[in-house]
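Q: Got a minute? One more chain.
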Amino acid sequence: MSARTCTGLIVAALLVGCGPEPEAPDGEWNVTVTGTADSCTGEEVAYQELFTYQLFFDGSATTIRINNEGFATGSTSGCRLKYESAIWLEEDPAGDFQWQIAGEATYEGAAGGCDLDEGVDWVGSETLKIVYSENESVVEGCAYDMELTGVFGG
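A: Always. Here it is, folded:
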């Protein structure tokens, strides 16, 4: 193979890129996650963060990505969604730990049709549970409850 042919193949490979475009979600919601309680201490959790929840439907089977990253799988029935994340590893100098989230939500898209308050398109709850811990400050078995509210974004 000539150097010119090899150069042409390299340029063609660069033009193709690193793979196919990610598929478009069936819907996106801008969801605010607010911590409500720690099951081990009973104290309120001072946590709030905004995420983009992207739903992909295959019949009632639903995949959730957050900010374009795989997050959870679940099932949809009408306006209701139940889901569970993978078990995530959190690496920490004080000791690693693993956590998992289980959640449920009532949501609606642009067409509406679900029984939600005006201006809200996603209402739900999640529980983050520590499933394993080598970290003394993160207690295995503790759970953190969160409330979710959001609006349809496309």
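A: The chain has one domain: 23-152.
Q: Perfect, thanks.
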